[in-house]
Amino acid sequence: MNPADLHIRIHQVMERIAVAARRAGRRPEDVTLVAATKTVPSQLIEQAIELGLRHFGENRVQEAEAKMKNLPVALRQASTWHLIGHLQSNKARRAMELFDVIQTVDSERLAHQLNRLAAEANRTMPIYIEVKTDPSATKSGILPHELFELARSVAQCPHLRLEGLMTVPPFFERAEDVRPYFRELRLLRDRLNQQRLVEYHLNGLSMGMSHDYEIAIEEGATLVRLGTAIWGPRPVQE
Ligand SMILES: *Cc1c(COP(=O)(O)O)cnc(C)c1O
Question: I need a labelling partner for 15 at 20 to 30 A (CA). Which of 21, 43, 198, 210 fits?
Answer without folding.
Answer: 43
